[in-house]
């Protein structure tokens, strides 16, 4: 009985995001899938494209922090201890990785012809 | 019925607490664990013809209804509550702080009444635990096999001479607890005070109350609004503590004392608001040495609280001890079962147990009471125990809070050991309060958290 139930997390996020959850979850899954499919098609990472995607990712991390500040009626300037810096890093990191993955996948699939991983 | 518990090692407990903590939710997570309704459902429902009446459809009543509906098949479950609006009370402070609009805390009771549960939109007029029945104001007789009393409590504004709830928000008088509209009106009054300064009075009543941290929070929030408008120097803030302590948990009281000192909040101990002159803006306090008058430019009135009349006039309250005078229900503090009427349970604010009257208390009380009730229907016994867990994200300024969790024994409990220190002012705790608590609360009402 005293065990963590993933359904609790799902329930809480459902209350938090409403129908948005059912848009965001498949969207995230789709982005990851597109990214992985691209890796398979090209046989690895295309470094040049990754660097470009990461540049946008840096911006994505910032956007994630701004969204976080907005929805929590506060900002990272309110940080008061290590746990706060951890949260800030986490939010920034999630924004960065998500934007990078998405950008990389979009750039890859839009560019048409597959590149080799060494290009 | 709940599945049997595998043996638990201390390491498991720590890990689970931490994992639960990742959900950012003292309400959802740690310090005890709870059977979710969905799990109960998955573990197959218990067939029964039992008649269960739930008196009160607030946080505790609705949570109990959801959990019982999920656990039982064939039971007649009736919730009695005349109020169509459901109020998310943990959000009142945020409304009174200008952070959230009034609508943030208002929804509909009907949104949370689970299918198969009858909702009687009437008030409870009489509870007869000897005759095993409840009578509504409309004259309806509801016999029961089991009764869950979740009536909440009564804000006894009449206990303060001169107080008029119709004037909340006027002439520098606020009162957050009153209602969503009262909280919004209090924000208008406090904001006007923060624009010009003066004397601000805070405090709490003697006796048991909802969320004893809320009056402290509001003092800190007012201080912050004054500072943000560069008017702190024009204001004097005084906290009138009802006892010699600022909070029931000694280690927290000491921390608050230090913070008040840091923020320049003056403290007067053993001052209980007795009467108020709303026109002349004078509050009169009862002290050990007589009465003391204090003029104000802003005051947050926190009324004395007691059991609703219908419970006070029933055989359910304590007949002796600290909970007798205000009519709190005589329940066993471990199981929430009534000490004299074993088929009656008391959960939420009405329960005559030490410590929290909070949503977090509800979160941990209801699963225990429901488990004992369901076990009895099944002819078994339950070993579930409520340890007094409650939590209070104590806001110390806009953007920061201390995540304080404790139990009957004044032990601090940590949902996030090693990550979130309970007595540290943190943004992450504020983020939980503003983002995660309401979704967790709503999940709780639906029996899903």
Query: What is the number of domains of chain B?
Result: 2
Return residue spans of chain A where pLDDT drops below 50 for at least 5 consecutive residues: none
Strand content of chain A: under 5%
Class of secondary structure makeup of chain B: alpha/beta
Shape of chain B: globular
| Discrete helix count of chain B | 10
**How many beta-strand segments of chain B?**
24
Mean pLDDT of chain A: 90
Q: Distance between the terminal alpha carbons of chain A, to the nearest Å?
A: 54 Å
Query: What is the helix/strand order of chain A?
Result: HHHH
Biggest sheet character of chain A: none
CATH topology of the largest domain in chain B: FAD/NAD(P)-binding domain
Strand content of chain B: 15-25%
Mean pLDDT level of chain B: 92
Number of E-type strands of chain A = 0
Q: Write the CATH architecture name of the largest domain in chain B.
A: 3-Layer(bba) Sandwich
Overview of this protein structure:
The complex is a heterodimer of chains A (119) and B (449). Chain A has 119 residues and is mainly α. Chain A has one domain (6-110). Chain A has helices at residues 6-17, 20-42, 47-71, 82-110. Chain B has 449 residues and is of the alpha/beta class. Chain B folds into 2 domains: 10-153 and 307-389 and 435-445, FAD/NAD(P)-binding domain; 157-305, FAD/NAD(P)-binding domain, CATH 3.50.50. Chain B contains 10 helices and 24 strands. Chain B has helices spanning 10-22, 37-42, 59-71, 92-95, 180-196, 214-228, 250-263, 309-312, 359-377, 427-445, and strands at 46-47, 51-55, 72-73, 76-80, 85-87, 106-108, 117-120, 124-128, 133-136, 141-143, 146-149, 154-155, 173-174, 198-203, 235-240, 266-268, 272-277, 282-287, 290-295, 298-300, 305-306, 344-346, 390-397, 400-406. Chain B has a 5-stranded parallel β-sheet with strand order 7-4-2-11-22, with helices on one face. In chain B, strand 15, helix 7 and strand 16 form a beta-alpha-beta unit. In chain B, helix 3 packs parallel to helix 9 (359-377) and helix 5 (180-196) packs parallel to helix 6. The chains are: A mainly alpha (119), B alpha/beta (449). The interface between A and B is large, with 30 and 47 residues.
């Amino acid at each position: 009985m005293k065990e963590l139930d993933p359904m609790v997390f799902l329930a809480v996020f459902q209350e938090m995001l409403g129908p948005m959850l059912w848009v965001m979850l498949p969207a995230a899954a789709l982005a990851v899938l597109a990214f992985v499919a691209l890796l398979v098609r090209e046989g690895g990472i295309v470094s040049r494209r990754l660097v470009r995607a990461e540049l946008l990712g840096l911006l994505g991390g910032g956007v994630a922090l701004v969204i976080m500040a907005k929805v929590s009626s506060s900002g990272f300037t309110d940080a008061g201890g290590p746990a706060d810096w951890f949260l800030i890093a986490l939010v920034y990191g999630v924004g960065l990785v998500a934007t990078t993955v998405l950008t990389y996948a979009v750039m890859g699939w839009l560019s048409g012809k597959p590149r080799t991983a060494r290009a | 019925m709940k599945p049997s518990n595998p043996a638990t090692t201390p390491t498991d407990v720590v890990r689970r607490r931490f994992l639960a903590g990742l959900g950012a939710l003292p309400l959802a997570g740690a310090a005890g664990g709870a059977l979710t309704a969905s799990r109960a459902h998955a573990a197959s429902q218990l067939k029964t013809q039992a008649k269960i009446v739930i008196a009160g459809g607030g946080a505790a009543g609705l949570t109990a209804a959801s959990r019982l509906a999920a656990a039982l098949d064939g039971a007649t479950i009736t919730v009695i509550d005349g109020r169509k609006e459901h109020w998310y009370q943990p959000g009142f402070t945020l409304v009174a702080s200008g952070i959230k609009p009034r609508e943030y805390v208002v929804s509909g009771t009907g949104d949370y009444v689970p299918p198969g549960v009858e909702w009687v939109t009437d008030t409870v007029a009489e509870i007869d635990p000897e005759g095993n029945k409840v009578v509504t104001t409309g004259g309806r007789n509801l016999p029961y096999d089991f009764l869950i009393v979740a009536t909440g409590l009564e804000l006894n504004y009449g206990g303060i001479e001169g107080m008029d709830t119709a004037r909340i928000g006027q002439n520098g008088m606020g009162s957050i607890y009153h209602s969503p509209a009262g909280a919004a009106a209090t924000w208008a009054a406090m904001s006007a005070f923060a624009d010009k300064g003066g004397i601000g009075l805070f405090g709490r009543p003697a006796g048991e109350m909802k969320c004893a941290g809320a009056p402290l929070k509001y003092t800190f929030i007012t201080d912050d609004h004054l500072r943000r408008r560069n008017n702190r120097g024009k204001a004097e803030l005084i906290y009138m503590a009802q006892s010699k302590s600022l909070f029931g948990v000694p280690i927290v009281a000491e921390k608050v004392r230090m913070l008040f000192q840091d923020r320049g909040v003056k403290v007067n101990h053993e001052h209980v608001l007795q009467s108020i002159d709303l026109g002349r803006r004078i509050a009169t306090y009862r002290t050990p040495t007589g009465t003391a008058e204090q003029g104000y430019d802003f005051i947050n009135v926190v009324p004395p609280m007691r059991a609703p009349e219908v419970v006070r006039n029933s055989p359910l309250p304590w007949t002796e001890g600290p909970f007798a005078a205000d009519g709190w229900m005589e329940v066993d503090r471990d199981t929430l079962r009534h000490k004299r009427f074993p088929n009656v349970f008391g959960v939420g604010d009405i329960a005559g147990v030490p410590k929290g009257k909070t949503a977090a208390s509800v979160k941990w009380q209801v699963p225990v009471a429901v488990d004992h009730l369901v076990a009895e229907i099944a002819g078994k016994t339950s070993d579930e125990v409520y340890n007094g867990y409650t939590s209070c994200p104590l806001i110390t300024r806009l953007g920061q809070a201390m995540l304080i969790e404790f139990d009957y024994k004044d032990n601090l409990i940590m949902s996030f050991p090693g990550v979130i220190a309970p007595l540290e002012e943190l943004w992450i705790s504020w983020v939980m309060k503003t983002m995660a608590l309401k979704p967790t609360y709503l999940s709780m009402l639906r029996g899903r958290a």
